[in-house]
C-alpha cells in the first residue's frame, strides 16, 4: 500500500512516500505548525506536496506527525488540508512527540525525546504516550534545544561573559552585533528559529573550545534532570533521542546522560527511518 509519512517540526517538514515500508521518494517543505500557520498557508504547502507526488490518488494512508498537533482544531487544520488533496487516503494526524516515540521505541516502553529547534519528551508505554512533562516553549523551557543553546550563547555574549577567544570567533563567523540580536529576538517573527541558527556555530567549535563544550553539556544536563528524570522508572528504561541537535551533539549528549545515570538508546537525526520500520508490514510465519 502506498503511504505518505510526514515529520513536521518548527522549521521544516520532511515528506516520505513509501510502499510496503520501503522508501520511494521524499521532499522537504516549510514546517506546518498550526499554532503559527493559518489554514490557507497549510493548504498551499499540501497542494505543492500533492503536485510532486503525482500518485496522490494511489496513496492509501497519510501519517502526519507535527509540532503543534495537540488535538482538536489544531489537528483539524492539518487533517482538512490533507483530506482535500488525498481524498482516497486514510489520514492520521498526531503530535511529533508520538512520531518520535514510535520511531525510536517502536512498540517497546521507554522515554522518547526531541532535541531540535525546540525540545520535548514523553514516557511511552509501547502504544501511546503515558506521560509528558510540558516542554514550556523557548521562553519557559525547551532546555537542550537549538533555541536554548542559541539563547545561552548570545546572552553570554551580550553580558560580556564569553571568553575572548570564543567572542572573536563569534564576531568573525556570525557577524551579529548586540543591536542585531535584540532586533531579531524582540522585534522580528520566529525568534526561536533565529536563536537556533547559532547551534551551527556551537557545533563547529564545541569540541575544540571547552567553554562551548560546557555550555552544551550543561544544557543537556538541565534537559535530562528537568524532563527525563521526572518520569517514574526512568533509571531502568532506554531513553531515545531524535532531532538535529541530538544528532550533531550526540557525543556530548551521551556524556551528559552518563553523568545523570540515563541509559541512551537510539539517537536519530530525523524519525523517518524509524517510522518506516514502524509501518513496515509484519512478516507472518505460518506453522503447519
Automatic annotation (TrEMBL):
<dbReference type="InterPro" id="IPR052519">
    <property type="entry name" value="Euk-type_GlcNAc_Kinase"/>
</dbReference>
<dbReference type="InterPro" id="IPR043129">
    <property type="entry name" value="ATPase_NBD"/>
</dbReference>
<protein>
    <recommendedName>
        <fullName>N-acetylglucosamine kinase</fullName>
    </recommendedName>
</protein>
Amino acid at each position: 500500500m502506498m503511504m505518505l509519512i510526514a515529520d513536521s517540526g518548527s522549521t521544516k517538514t520532511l515528506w516520505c512516500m513509501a510502499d510496503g515500508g520501503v522508501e520511494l521518494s521524499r521532499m522537504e517543505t516549510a514546517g506546518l505548525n498550526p499554532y503559527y500557520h493559518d489554514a490557507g498557508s497549510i493548504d498551499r504547502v499540501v497542494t505543492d506536496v500533492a503536485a510532486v507526488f503525482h500518485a496522490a490518488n494511489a496513496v492509501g494512508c497519510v501519517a502526519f506527525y507535527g509540532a503543534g498537533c495537540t488535538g482538536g482544531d489544531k489537528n483539524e487544520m492539518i487533517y482538512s488540508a490533507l483530506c482535500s488533496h488525498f481524498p482516497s487516503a486514510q489520514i492520521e494526524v498526531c503530535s511529533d512527540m508520538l512520531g518520535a516515540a514510535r520511531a525510536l521505541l517502536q512498540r517497546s516502553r521507554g522515554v522518547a525525546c526531541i532535541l531540535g529547534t525546540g525540545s520535548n519528551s514523553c514516557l511511552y508505554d509501547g502504544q501511546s504516550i503515558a506521560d509528558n512533562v510540558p516542554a514550556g516553549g523557548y521562553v519557559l523551557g525547551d532546555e537542550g534545544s537549538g533555541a536554548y543553546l542559541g539563547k545561552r550563547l548570545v546572552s553570554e555574549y551580550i553580558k560580556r561573559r564569553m571568553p575572548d577567544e570564543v567572542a572573536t570567533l563569534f564576531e568573525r563567523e556570525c557577524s551579529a552585533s548586540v543591536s542585531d540580536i535584540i532586533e531579531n529576538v524582540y522585534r522580528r517573527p520566529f525568534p526561536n528559529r533565529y536563536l537556533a541558527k547559532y547551534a551551527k556555530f556551537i557545533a563547529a567549535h564545541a569540541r575544540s573550545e571547552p567553554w562551548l563544550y560546557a555550555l552544551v553539556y550543561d544544557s543537556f544536563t538541565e534537559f535530562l534532570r528537568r524532563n527525563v528524570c521526572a518520569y517514574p522508572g526512568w533509571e531502568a528504561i532506554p531513553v531515545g533521542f531524535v532531532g538535529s541537535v541530538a544528532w550533531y551533539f550526540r557525543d556530548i549528549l551521551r556524556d551528559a546522560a552518563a553523568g545523570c545515570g540515563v541509559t541512551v538508546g537510539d539517537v536519530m537525526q530525523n524519525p523517518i527511518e524509524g517510522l518506516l520500520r514502524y509501518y513496515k508490514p509484519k512478516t507472518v510465519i505460518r506453522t503447519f
